[in-house]
Amino acid sequence: MSRVDAIVVGAGPNGLAAAIELARAGRSVHVIEGAPTVGGGVRSAELMVPGVIHDVCSAIYPFGRTSPFFAGVGEALAGHGLRWIEPPAAIAHPLDDGPAVMLARDVAVTAAGLGPDARAYEALLGPIVRAWGALSPHLLAPFHVPLAPLDALRLARFGWPAIQSAAAVARRFRGDRARALFAGAAAHSQIGLTEPTSAAAGLVMLASAHHDGWPLPAGGASRIPEAMADELRALGGTIETGRMVRRVEELPAHRVALLDLTPRQVLEVAPDRFRGRYRRALERFRYGPGAFKVDLVLDGPIPWRDPDVGRAGTVHVGGTFEEIARAEGVVAAGRIPERPFVLVAQSSLFDPSRAPEGHHTVWAYCHVPNGSPVDMTEPILRQVERFAPGFRDRIVASRSNGPADLEAYNPNDVGGDIAGGRMDLGQLFTRPAARLDPYSTPDPSLFLCSASTPPGGGVHGMCGWHAARSALRRLR
């Protein structure tokens, strides 16, 4: 092929976002993906029963409609067939005693179910949700001080509780219900809930759920990257699948290359490109906990003890704040929790295209130490059964994937780490290295666009979006 402006290595959501942004700027782009299909950690397939579609890796998309990247291409992706379904409730959090905590789009409605903490919850989340449209672009970006004074003030107001631990912020609440809801959201940080910045995930997850309801893509996760690939081709970009890049020297002629890879793979494909401090930063990059995932086919919906849980697309299974904090703390210490915190997606309740009549899918995972070989199928099933008696009796088929399986499917999930690296205070703002432009590298022709750059894990496309803008400055 003739020389192109940019090669993108990896067709996950960040790689595709980078390619689309470059193509929208009029640049020639070629994407190379090692797997047979695009998507990276955003793919779906018939895993066990014909006609039953499972999300192989990710299934929950808080920013799928609202990140600056996806908002900018939303109309185009809809034209390529991407359709979003919003469940009646974004999150349910069942408890042993009393009804489940339900998160509705309306902050006041959610707060009304939190008993003595209604006012405290509204005081904490209300300002963030009301300012979300202006605030989220700054949160989904490298650390910076906004130029607009009002934006700077909003970011500072968010930053003070966000930089604290989830345990510290949870002390604002007196009752178990608000504390449990915050714990489940904060556990998306994949770090201990007593660690600094663990509160940030809780605030971001809850605010995004109130703002956009955590919609799911009709037909399965693959519809997202498929629509992105169609848009890239419509812009003149090209995609090559089934080709694993071993060395950057093998790439077709180009001016810049953007790597949707984590630091370990960057060093593998570009072993001689970096020296000194930057190389040491990549070598010392720390990966976070792994995930252990169970996919299930049921002959009916999960029989939750509280039927309201069936109104939510995502269910946080783990009980009280104390129990969830204990489980995540055990994982952070490199051990296996007896009662893991489990994330459950019950997408087929709201998207009948995923399973034939009489069947339902369940997507569930828990956190484990990076690379753990321990089979967590039984602890996960036991936790769901705890809040849904008779759940096991409805299982028709099951499939489990540990950290090694996830990494084999998507090499960016090193040791089962689905966030592209540990997102603690030491790596939240300086991933993968401390640089003014974290997407650039000392090699002027190489850029990074994976979740190992800010703002980190999640399907928002912003790592690729920012990396493309950095590369465009170089191309100009």
Describe the structure.
57% of the residues are buried. The chain has helices spanning 13-24, 68-79, 107-112, 118-130, 132-139, 149-162, 166-170, 176-186, 198-212, 223-234, 263-269, 276-284, 321-332, 377-387, 403-409, 425-428, 462-475; strands at residues 4-9, 29-32, 44-45, 54-55, 84-85, 89-93, 101-103, 216-217, 238-240, 254-259, 290-298, 312-317, 342-345, 360-368, 395-401, 446-448. The two termini are 22 Å apart. The chain has 17 helices and 16 strands. The model has no long low-confidence stretch (mean pLDDT 97).
SS class: alpha/beta
Give the biggest sheet: 7 strands, mixed
Q: Distance between termini?
A: 22 Å
Q: Note the total helix count.
A: 17
Spatial order of strands in the largest sheet: 7-6-12-13-14-11-15
> Radius of gyration from the CA trace?
21 Å
The gross shape turns out to be globular
Short description:
By secondary structure, this protein is of the alpha/beta class. The protein contains 17 helices and 16 strands.
